[in-house]
Amino acid sequence: MLGTFVVLRCVFLRGQTVIMGRMHAPGKGISGSAKPYVRTAPSWLRNLYTADDVKEQINKLARKGLTPSKIGVVLRDTRGIAQVKSLTGTKILRILKAQGLAPELPEDLYHLIKKAVAMRKHLMRNRKDKDCKFRLILVESRIHRLSRYYRENGVVAPNFKYQSATASTLVA
Questions:
Q1: Which residues lie across from 13 on neighbouring strands?
Q2: How far is CA 77 from CA 71, 82, 103, 132, in A?
Q3: Which residues, 6 or more positions from 86, have their beta carbon under 8 angstroms from its beta carbon?
Q4: Which among 144, 142, 146, 118 is positioned nearest to 132, based on CA atoms?
Q5: Backbone angle region of 92, left / alpha / beta, with phi > 0 → left and psi within -120 to 50 → alpha
Q6: Is the pLDDT of residue 14 over 70?
Q7: Is the pLDDT score of 17 beyond 60?
Q8: Tens of pLDDT, residues 153-168
Q9: 33: burial class by Cβ within 10 Å (0-12, 13-18, 19+)?
Q10: What is the pLDDT of residues 90-117, one digit of tens each?
């Protein structure tokens, strides 16, 4: 009866027994950056910038049209501020919401819609690209799932619905 045994492999990772897989890919990868254990800003950084200075810089960059993630990259690369929350006590997006400068669409949803619009444009020129058509279906299913989540949590309007015909106006 050697053929009747089924061996189940359980993966232990970061204290968890089950690893969630990717949505439309076979991987179960865990690579990624880890935040530092110390949650306070270093003393040299606290001596350079106050919370009000950082909030003012964030507002200035947001008025230029930068997204919250790009604001974080600019602050990290030019000012040496790795974590805004360690200096100000609040995250970049919450600072922008308090000032009324937050984008109307969340960044992840915006970039998925932008990708779908680019794929549709590609399909208009290359009708026989079956792989692109399949990938577009996957991207649009992610958009529908994410927009449903944001509707339920009140991040986007309750009547927000992704439509491929009007999607290019959302990202323009």
A1: 16
A2: 10, 8, 22, 36
A3: 39, 40, 41
A4: 118
A5: alpha
A6: no
A7: no
A8: 999 999 999 999 999 9
A9: exposed
A10: 999 999 999 999 999 999 999 999 999 9
